[in-house]
Write a structure and sequence with these properties.
Blueprint lengths: L1 H12 L4 E3 L6 H13 L2 E8 L9 E10 L2 E9 L5 H5 L3 H4 L5 E4 L2 H10 L7 E4 H8 L17 H6 L18 H18 L1
Parallel strand pairs: 2-5, 5-6
Antiparallel strand pairs: 1-4, 2-3, 3-4
Length: 196
């Protein structure tokens, strides 16, 4: 309850400068997401960016997934023009600063380098499904089997699900929208599942 009041108070003083994708459509959803992340010992996290250059490209979205009992819950949000990444993630600082939590990434090196470049320097303990897959089978490297998406990917191999790559998706060459939220949330849900 106290955390809810703190987050709500901060958001009232600093109105959100980001739009919320599915299912985060209201302020209550941000509060709900932060509460769920704080309650969960583990969560998956993924960034969507304009490219792969941490100095010249920018973060355009972030997805979170937690597991509650046997159900996965995912959220996606993105900044609007003129908002720093640090401002975007401010409501999530209590989550990032809890070093008892485990954050699951697929290719943590990329996401963390983007976050650090944009001023987010504190983070939870890290697990990386890409590194785990390589440790289990070092011959995956260079075969596409370390990737999360596409034919022959880790998700395809483990779950029989072929997630569309960016180039294969409806997002390729366009501005992101509703499809972006679904794309980002699929990343975090399958990253969480791969970790299990």
């Amino acid at each position: 309850r106290l955390l809810s009041l703190i987050v709500r108070g901060w958001l009232q003083q600093h109105p959100p400068h980001f739009t919320i994708g599915l299912p985060m459509s209201e302020l209550n959803e941000i509060d709900d997401c932060v509460k769920a992340l704080l309650a969960a010992p583990t969560y998956a996290f993924d960034l969507e960016t304009t490219g792969l250059d941490k100095f010249n490209d920018t973060i355009i979205g972030a997805a979170f997934t937690v597991k509650e009992k046997k159900t996965y819950r995912s959220w996606y949000f993105k900044p609007t023009t003129g908002v720093s990444v640090k401002e975007l993630f401010r409501p999530f600082e209590p989550v990032f600063l809890d070093h008892q939590k485990l954050s699951i990434f697929h290719n943590a090196k990329f996401d963390l380098s983007m976050l650090i470049t944009h001023g987010i320097k504190h983070f939870n303990r890290i697990s990386d499904t890409m590194v785990m897959a390589w440790i289990i089978d070092e011959n995956r490297s260079g075969t596409g089997r370390l990737k999360l998406k596409g034919k022959g990917s880790l998700t395809h191999e483990l779950f029989g699900v072929e997630l569309a790559t960016y180039a294969q998706s409806a997002l390729s060459g366009s501005l992101f929208g509703k499809e972006e939220a679904q794309y980002g949330m699929a990343d975090t849900e399958f990253t969480y599942k791969a970790h299990e």
